[in-house]
Prior knowledge:
Elements: H1 3-7, H2 24-41, H3 45-56, H4 61-68, H5 72-89, H6 91-96
Helix pairs in contact: 3-5, 4-5
Amino acid sequence: MSRWRRRSRVVEVSTDEWLDRPGDGHADAADLRLTMRAALSRLTPRQRTMLVLRYFEDKSETEIADLLGVRVGSVRSQIYRSLERLKKTAPELSAVREFR
Length: 100
């Protein structure tokens, strides 16, 4: 072993505890992702696009309107309708996190 590797060697200590323990939270997160994906697939392509741009890409309503070539009022109404439709099709999503 080179002298450089010997100096940078990290001492590891074994313990009885796991640092990352998979638990019920992972299953809940997977269920939530599947539910969200199914709910989003029920939206129209335009509604999905606007929701993704707004909440996942963090674009403003003005930026979305410019990107899609529509008025800001159209963006607002489409996002509102999309969120209402998501609440109706997947009520468990609104119980986990409020959309507004």
